[in-house]
Write a structure and sequence with these properties.
Layout (H helix, E strand, L loop, with lengths): L2 H14 L8 E2 H10 L2 H18 L10 E7 L12 E11 L3 H67 L5 H36 L8 E2 L12 H11 L1 H23 L3 E10 L5 E8 L9 H65 L5 H36 L9
Parallel strand pairs: 1-4
Antiparallel strand pairs: 2-3, 3-5, 5-6
Helix pairs in contact: 2-4, 3-4, 4-5, 4-7, 4-9, 6-8, 7-8, 8-9
Length: 414
Amino acid sequence: MGPASIRLFIGICLVIRATPAAEPVSFRAALRMASERAPLALGSAQSAKTLRRAAERSNPLFLLPAQLQVYSAARRLAADASLGSDTQAQFQQYVPLRPVGATRREAMSAAEALSLARQSEARAVAAERAAHAWLDVFFSEQYHALRGRALTEAESLTKLARARVAAGTASANDTALALADEAIAMAENIEAEGELHEATIALGSLIGLEDDSLAIDPSDAPSNVAPVPHDAALQNMRARHTGVLRARAYEQGVRRDASHFEASQGLNVGIGGVSSREGTGDIFVGALVTLPLAWSTPGEAEVLRAEAALHEASAARAFEEEELHRILRLALHEYDHARDSARASLNALRALQEAYRIARALVDRGAVDLSVAALARQRLIAGETRSIRSNVRILHANVRLLAAQGTLPEGSPP
């Protein structure tokens, strides 16, 4: 089934919608509303703002705190008791020998990028969930309308059976069978109404609308999705899928953290000055330089642990890409399979429509028993249900293919 057939199907659905709403929700509006209210996306956005401020403040002029030491002696232990007390002040600023400030700023920037990637992923996941929920309502509306028409037709057959029994041209068994079919049609219509209500609640919870009269506007249903070659779809997935981008951002963040941790475990040089006032009244001022003596490397184990975390992050990124590739292959298969199934369902529906037309004409002329038309109608309803389900499955397949590539828009028509 091609795009023209899908558009025709959607046009028919617009006409036969059972429960119109004052403000129906379009497909792109549902995606936008769901993505904007995703809790994880809102939290990640706030986290990104905080980390942006952290990155701006992560490389100050002096990275390590300065030290000021003051010594005072009340009296010098000397023979001359007239000497005053000694006082000494020592100031020292430690300066790292490795780029601690630069690596910390890079680590904060990488953390900000990870938060933004998580925000995009959360929005994409919420949009995809809303897309399928919207399509569930779309199917439920059409299925409910079908069951309503089936009930009307069953009631028509019941009236015909009673008329024929009253005229003596049919047995009372025809009326009993017609009433049974009508009762079944009523039960199935009630079940379809319940399924529609459940689907509406599910969609409303995702987009933040708690309205029992919620309905959809199918005018922008995702029907016009062109086929995509495998290599092009794979390239889209690797370049645009939010899951891949989040995994890469996480890997980059761990790499930056490891670099910062390694730099922070480096040696520091102390630069400062010393001033003292001796008990004789003499004042001494001098420079102070503190050189590190690397007797050991206590931070080496933690640096190795950071490197191990980086290896795990790289493996997680590779696993994410591999898993998404599998999902993409399934989506490409479903894209073609759904269309093959819809074509077969349409051929069956056309044959069933003709069979019912003939059966109803024979019943109206009194040439055959009412059970012939009832059986043909039941098979026609099954065929119509399969056709509706197949056409909606095409739309689901379109959504999955777009989502697998990372090209499902958040609020824009595909």
